[in-house]
UniProtKB/TrEMBL annotation:
This is G-protein coupled receptors family 3 profile domain-containing protein. It comes from Wuchereria bancrofti. It holds the Pfam family 7tm_3. InterPro entries: ANF_lig-bd_rcpt, GPCR_3, GPCR_3_9-Cys_sf, GPCR_3_C, GPCR_3_mtglu_rcpt, mGluR, Peripla_BP_I. PROSITE patterns: G_PROTEIN_RECEP_F3_4. Coiled coil: none annotated. Residues 552-814 form the G-protein coupled receptors family 3 profile domain. The keyword Transport does not apply. It is a multi-pass membrane protein.
Length: 824
C-alpha cells in the first residue's frame, strides 16, 4: 500500500510538471461520445535500437485500431445495447515501446484527474484535456506494454481489457487487479508447445525469448511443461532484446548450429524482433548454405499466422510450426475497411505509405489499383470482442444502477464508473444467452489453440488443435513431412541417440544427454522379468494362462461337452421310463442325485480352464469336492441300504429307506464337504498368484497349494473307500439283483483312476498346462465312469431291450428286496 501511494504521488508530480509543458503525447484518434473508451494500439514499430517510434504497422496497428472504431459503430447502431448513449473513443499509439506507452497513458490519467468541465485556458479557449474520463481501456497489444500500462491504470481503478497480451505475469491479480483479456494466457500455449515438441519425438531443443513479461514468463512456462514431458533445453534460454544488433543475432545462430545437437527452436519473441532475427538468419544463409532449413521452428502466437512476420523469408523457414489462439474471421470488417477513406491521421499515413493519391477513392479502390491483397489481421476479431465485452458490461452496469430511468438520463452514464464493479459484469459472465464467457473469473481469456505449419508457398496450414483440457490432436505425419531434411530421414531434435546393444547410458548434466559406454558386467533380471531386445533393461514377462483355442483346453472341453450331453440324455431316459421296473428298482431319487453330481463334474472343467480371478478360484475350490461328494454320497447311501437288507437277521421293515430319508442322508454327507470348503475359503481367501515354472515363464493361477487340494479331496477319498468296501461286501446278491456288481465296477474303476491321477498331478508342478488338463480329465472321467458303469446298462435295457424291462417271478428273498426297494 505504501509503495502504491508513493507511485501515486510521483505520478501527480509528473502530471503537474507536464501540464503546461511542450511534451507532445503523440497523435491520436478521438471519437466523441457520452462514454469514452480508451484504446492503445501499436500503430508504429519500435524505433531502431529502442527509440520511440519507427515505421507504420499496417496490419497490427492500423487494422486493429480501425477494428475498435468498427466495433463502436456496431454498438452505437444497435438499439439493444446502451440505447440513447453513444460510445466514444480516445485511441493512442504505443509504438510497441513500454516507456512510450506509459507516457501515452498519462493522457487517460489527465482526463480522470480533471474534476470539472467548466475549465478554460487564459485566452478563453477550452482545454485540450476536457473532463471525459475513460470508462475502460482497450489494449495494449504486447504483454510488456500491458504490464507497464496496467500498473498505472490500477492506481486509478480503470479496467483494462487486452486483445492480444498473453503474458503469464498479467494473471497475477495481486499486481494487476484491473487487467483482463479476451485471449488465453501464455502458460496455456506454452503447454501446447511442449505437447507439440513431445508428439514430434523431440527431447532436446533450443529456446529463444525476448526480455520482458511476454518472452521470459512464456519460456519459463514452457520449461516447466517440457520438464514434465522429459524435454530438455540446450544450455540455457537465449534471451534477446530490442537493442540487439545484427552481429549479435548472427553470433547466436552460429552458436546454436555448432552445438550439433538440437535443431528444434522454441521461440517466445515479439513480431518486431522476429523480423530482425529472420533478417539476420537470411544474411547468414547466403554466406553459408548449410543454414538452409537447418532450424525447425516452434513459435508462439506472436508469430502465429501473421504474414507480416514471414514476408520475404517463406522459403527459408518453411515447415515452421506456429501456435495461434482459435481465430475467427469477421467478413464485414473486410468490406468496412475497404470502404474507408483517409479520415484520420493514421489512415492518412497508411494512405501515403501505399502511394495512394486520390482522396476521393476508398482503400478498396486503392488496393485494386496497386495490386494489394487485403488480408484481415489475426487479432482483429479479438479487438471487436473486447469492445463488445465492455459495451455489454456497461449496459448491465447502468441497467442495474438506474433501473427506473432510461439510459440517457442516468447520471452515471456520463460520469465516473466504479472499475471493480464494472469488471464484475464481464468476468466469468456470459454476455449473450447460450454463449460461454469470454473471460474467466481471474480475468483471463477462455479459448483453445490451433496449430499451423508454414508450407513452401508461404501459406499456413492447420495441422492440429490443442484444447484447454491439455489434449493435443496433431497430424504428426504431416508435420514431419513438412520439416525438411537433406537426407530424407526422420526429423529429430535430440541430444543423444539410443545406445547400441551391449552399451549403457552414462547421463550428463541433463537426463536428455548421455554417452554410450560398453557394458562390462551383466545383471540377472528378477523373477518375472526378462531382458529386453537390446539387453539394456529388464521387461515384465506377461503372465500366461490357458487359452481357449489351446489343445490343453479344447480336449477337456470337448470331453466335458459330450459328457453333459450324455448326462442329459440319461436324465431324459430316466424321466421317460420312470415307471418301468428297471428304473424303479434302481432308486430313482438317488439316481437323480448321482446325475446332478455327474453334471457338476463336467461343468467343473469350464471353471478350471477359465482365466483365474477371485470368483473363478472360489468356484473351483467348491465344485471339485462338491461334484464328486454328490456322486459318492448317493452310491454310499445305496450300497449301505443293500448291505442292511441282505445282512439283516429277520425279515421286516427297515428304518430310513423311504426316498426322502435317503435324500436327507445324501444331503447330510454332501453338507460336510460343502461346510469344509466354505471354512477353507474363510481361512484362506481365494485369489490369484503368479508362479514361476522357469525364469522365462510366469503363470497366472489360483492362490492354492497342491496340499490344500489334497486335503479337500481327502473326504471324497474316504467316501470312495467306504463305497468300495460296501460294493465288495454286497457282491454276492442272489438272482437278478446285480446292482452291487455295477456299483462295484464303478468304484473299482474310480479307485484305479484316482490312484493314477495323483502321481501325474504332483509330478507336473512345473507344467501348469499338463497339471490343469489332467485335473480336468480326472474329474470328467470320474463322472464318466459312474455314467457308463452304473447307468449305461439300465439305459440300454430301457431303450434297446424293453422286453427285459418287466417284473419277473422272484424268490422270497427277491420279493423282500423288491418290497424294500420300491420305497426308493
Amino acid at each position: 500500500m505504501l509503495i502504491h501511494s508513493f507511485v501515486y504521488l510521483r505520478l501527480i508530480f509528473v502530471i503537474l510538471l507536464t501540464e503546461n509543458s511542450s511534451i507532445i503525447f503523440g497523435r491520436q484518434v478521438f471519437l466523441k461520445g457520452d462514454i469514452i473508451l480508451g484504446g492503445l494500439f501499436p500503430v508504429h514499430e519500435a524505433g531502431l535500437n529502442g527509440s520511440e517510434c519507427g515505421v507504420l504497422k499496417a496490419a497490427q496497428g492500423v487494422q486493429r485500431l480501425q477494428a475498435m472504431l468498427y466495433a463502436l459503430d456496431l454498438v452505437n447502431n444497435d438499439a439493444t445495447i446502451l440505447p440513447g448513449i453513444m460510445l466514444g473513443a480516445q485511441i493512442l499509439d504505443t509504438c510497441s515501446v513500454d516507456s512510450y506507452a506509459l507516457e501515452q497513458t498519462l493522457v487517460f490519467i489527465k482526463t480522470i484527474m480533471s474534476q470539472t468541465e467548466e475549465i478554460y485556458c487564459s485566452d478563453g479557449s477550452k482545454p485540450i484535456y476536457q473532463h471525459h474520463p475513460v470508462a475502460a481501456v482497450i489494449g495494449a497489444a504486447s504483454s510488456q506494454v500491458s504490464v507497464m500500462v496496467a500498473s498505472m491504470l490500477q492506481l486509478f481503478k480503470v479496467p483494462q481489457i487486452s486483445y492480444s497480451s498473453t503474458g503469464t505475469e498479467l494473471s497475477e491479480k495481486s499486481r494487476f487487479a484491473y487487467f483482463s483479456r479476451v485471449v488465453p494466457p501464455d502458460n496455456f500455449q506454452a503447454t501446447a508447445m511442449a505437447h507439440v515438441v513431445s508428439a514430434l519425438g523431440w527431447t532436446y531443443v533450443h529456446a529463444i525469448a525476448v526480455t520482458g513479461a511476454y518472452g521470459e514468463r512464456g519460456i519459463d512456462s514452457f520449461r516447466s511443461a517440457a520438464a514434465e514431458l522429459g524435454i530438455c533445453i540446450d544450455g540455457d534460454v537465449h534471451k534477446i532484446n530490442r537493442r540487439w544488433t545484427d552481429i549479435q543475432f548472427k553470433e547466436l545462430f552460429f552458436k546454436m548450429k555448432y552445438t550439433k545437437k538440437a535443431r528444434g527452436v522454441v521461440i517466445f519473441v515479439d513480431e518486431d524482433q522476429l523480423r530482425r532475427m529472420l533478417s539476420s538468419l537470411d544474411d547468414i544463409r547466403h554466406e553459408d548454405s548449410t543454414f538452409d532449413n537447418y532450424f525447425w521452428w516452434i513459435a508462439s502466437d506472436s508469430w502465429g499466422i501473421k504474414q507480416s512476420v514471414i514476408t520475404g523469408y517463406e522459403a527459408m523457414i518453411s515447415g515452421a510450426v506456429t501456435i495461434s489462439p482459435d481465430l475467427k474471421v469477421v467478413p464485414d470488417f473486410d468490406r468496412y475497411f475497404k470502404n474507408l477513406r483517409p479520415s484520420n491521421t493514421f489512415l492518412r499515413e497508411y494512405w501515403e505509405l501505399i502511394n495512394c493519391t486520390d482522396e476521393h477513392n476508398n482503400f478498396g479502390e486503392c488496393f485494386d489499383r496497386h495490386g494489394i491483397t487485403f488480408k484481415q489481421e489475426a487479432y482483429v476479431p479479438f479487438v471487436i470482442d473486447a469492445v463488445n465485452v465492455v459495451a455489454k458490461a456497461l449496459h448491465q452496469y447502468i441497467q442495474a444502477t438506474c433501473s427506473s430511468l432510461n439510459f440517457h438520463n442516468c447520471n452515471i452514464s456520463k460520469t465516473d464508473f466504479d472499475g471493480a464493479r464494472l469488471q464484475s459484469y464481464y468476468r466469468n459472465v456470459s454476455i449473450e444467452p447460450g454463449v460461454p464467457p469470454h473471460i474467466d473469473a481471474n480475468g483471463d481469456g477462455i479459448g483453445n489453440y490451433n496449430i499451423y505449419q508454414l508450407n513452401d508457398m508461404g501459406y499456413y496450414q492447420n495441422v492440429g488443435k490443442w484444447t484447454a483440457g491439455k489434449k493435443l490432436n496433431l497430424n504428426v505425419r504431416r508435420v514431419r513431412k513438412g520439416l525438411k531434411r537433406w537426407d530424407g530421414s526422420l526429423p529429430l531434435s535430440v541430444c543423444s541417440t539410443d545406445c547400441p546393444r551391449g552399451h549403457y547410458r552414462a547421463y550428463q548434466d541433463q537426463n536428455c544427454c548421455w554417452t554410450c559406454i560398453p557394458c562390462d558386467v551383466c545383471f540377472q533380471c528378477p523373477l518375472g522379468y526378462a531382458p529386453n531386445d537390446d539387453l539394456v533393461a529388464c521387461k515384465l514377462i506377461p503372465p500366461t494362462t490357458l487359452e481357449y483355442n489351446s489343445p490343453w483346453v479344447v480336449l477337456p472341453a470337448i470331453c466335458s461337452t459330450l459328457g453333459i450331453v450324455a448326462t442329459l440324455f440319461v436324465l431324459a431316459v430316466f424321466i421317460r421310463y420312470s415307471s418301468t421296473p428297471v428304473i424303479m428298482a434302481s432308486g430313482r431319487e438317488l439316481c437323480y442325485f448321482m446325475l446332478a453330481g455327474i453334471l457338476l463334474c463336467y461343468l467343473s472343467t469350464f471353471i478350471l480352464v477359465s482365466k483365474p480371478n477371485v470368483a473363478m478360484c472360489a468356484a473351483s475350490r467348491i465344485l471339485i469336492g462338491l461334484s464328486m461328494s454328490t456322486i459318492y454320497a448317493a452310491i454310499l447311501t445305496k450300497t449301505n441300504l443293500l448291505a442292511r437288507i441282505f445282512l439283516m437277521q429277520n425279515v421286516g421293515r427297515l428304518d430310513c429307506i423311504v426316498p426322502s430319508a435317503q435324500i436327507a442322508i445324501c444331503c447330510g454327507i454332501v453338507s460336510i464337504q460343502l461346510i469344509g470348503s466354505l471354512v477353507w475359503l474363510i481361512i484362506d481367501p481365494p485369489g490369484t498368484a503368479i508362479l514361476f515354472p522357469s525364469r522365462k515363464e510366469t503363470v497366472l493361477t489360483c492362490k492354492a497349494r497342491a496340499s490344500h487340494l489334497l486335503i479337500s479331496l481327502l473326504y471324497n477319498m474316504l467316501l470312495i473307500i467306504a463305497c468300495t468296501l460296501y460294493a465288495f461286501k454286497t457282491r454276492r446278491i442272489p438272482e437278478n439283483f446285480n446292482e452291487t456288481r455295477l456299483i462295484g465296477f464303478t468304484m473299482y474303476s474310480t479307485s484305479i483312476l484316482w490312484l493314477s491321477f495323483g502321481p501325474i498331478y504332483f509330478a507336473t508342478q512345473n507344467n501348469f498346462k499338463i497339471q490343469m488338463t489332467s485335473l480336468c480329465m480326472c474329474i470328467s472321467m470320474s463322472g464318466t465312469v459312474a455314467l457308463c458303469c452304473f447307468f449305461a446298462p439300465k439305459v440300454y435295457i430301457a431303450v434297446c431291450q424293453p422286453y427285459k424291462n418287466v417284473r419277473m417271478r422272484q424268490s422270497a428273498v427277491g420279493h423282500l428286496v423288491n418290497q424294500q426297494m420300491k420305497f426308493m
